[in-house]
Amino acid sequence: MSTSDREEVPVPYIAVLAAEAASEHANEPIAPIVLGLIAFGSLVAGLFVTYAFRNVGNRH
């Protein structure tokens, strides 16, 4: 079978098929909003730790 006999499939169509196939197999253990809240909470905790040690360098 030569390349001229094959029908060309547009690239965006192939990308849509790949995305649909991937979404069928995706099992999210937690909801995306919960993941965002966990990330936000960890960043706020890091902010508090950084703020707590802001004056350590001036003591010495």
Short description:
By secondary structure, this protein is mainly α. It contains two helices and no strands.
The count of β-strands is 0
Give the strand content. under 5%
User: What composes the largest sheet?
Assistant: none
Give the topology string: H per helix, E per strand: HH
Helix content: 55-70%
- Give me the secondary-structure category: mainly alpha
Radius of gyration: 25 Å
Mean pLDDT: 82
Given the C-alpha coordinates, what overall shape results?
elongated
Helical segment count = 2
The parts where pLDDT drops under 50 for at least 5 residues are: none
CA-CA gap between termini = 78 Å
Folded structure, characterized:
By secondary structure, the chain is mainly α. The protein has two helices and no strands. It has helices at 11-25, 32-52. The N and C termini lie far apart (78 Å). The model has no long low-confidence stretch (mean pLDDT 82).
Keywords:
mainly alpha; single chain
List strands and helices in order, with pairings.
Blueprint: H1 11-25, H2 32-52
